[in-house]
Fold this protein.
Amino acid sequence: MAPNNIAFVTDSTADFPDGAVEKLGLHIIPIHILINGNDFLHDVTISNQDVIDHMKIKLEVKTAPPMPGEYSYVYERLLTKEKYDKVVSFHVSDNLSNCYKSAKNSLKLLDETISKNI
């Protein structure tokens, strides 16, 4: 039997037009943005404009992927509490970012009955 209730997940490296995330019902996991050693969550505790402003004044700006536990928390919530049948998780190539690797490693943190649905 094919799943009829699929959650689509990505991280905030994806760039969607205004309103698209809500319209499509996507679940976005924020990446970490480090500014002078301070950790912010993209579009949660820091905006794109804030990042640009910090770069303009030449502060050190780096990014880091969500931790595996952050991915597994979302996957588990979607499959157990929100009752999705499957999760499809899209990420930028592992040649460009560690987001895919982190998302893949998150599966090791989940019970097999949950991870088989991702």
